[in-house]
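Tutorial handout. Part one gives the primary structure; part two gives the three-dimensional structure as tokens.
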Amino acid sequence: MTRLTVNERPVEFAMDPRTPLLWALRDAANLTGTKYGCGVGDCGACTVLVDGAALRSCLITLAECEGRFVVTIEGLSRDRSHPVQQAMVAEQAIQCGFCTPGIVMSAAALLSANASPSDAEIRAAIPNLCRCGVYPRLLRAVHRAAALTRREDTIDAAPAPGIAPQAAARAVPALTPPSSLTSSGETP
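Part two.
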């Protein structure tokens, strides 16, 4: 049996220790917010926190998680009040929602280590793929969540007073998708 703590609860998995954490979470623990995307760690849909670090759960085995602390999207905030979750909604950085849990977990890990990340640090910490292309709004959402984390802002869907929505959108540089999205390296 593999023993670990998932969302602050001790769990024992009676599964092959070589089982990817992703499948233990989804199939045995019924924590289906962690998504299967590619199975090779490229897309980030399966990102969870392991001892506070954002890791791809499709690449880490149960044996490697023995005695560790795992947080899934379900455990990040029971009432969806985490600053990253609130900012993602406020900035409308959610489209189909499939990649969203992994992105939220990556952003939460970043902000727990760095409450004032630069655009480059955000891009480096959140290499997750999003087919819907929410990258510009994602960058704004992480900056908003960072401000919330620093308690310099309150959550509301409106831009700052005196800034037109179009100007606010231009004020934050776009987060560009990884070049691996297309074979030519160009953004679709």
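Part three, for discussion. Residues 2-76 form a domain with the Ubiquitin-like (UB roll) fold (CATH 3.10.20.30). Residues 135-149 form the longest helix (15 residues).
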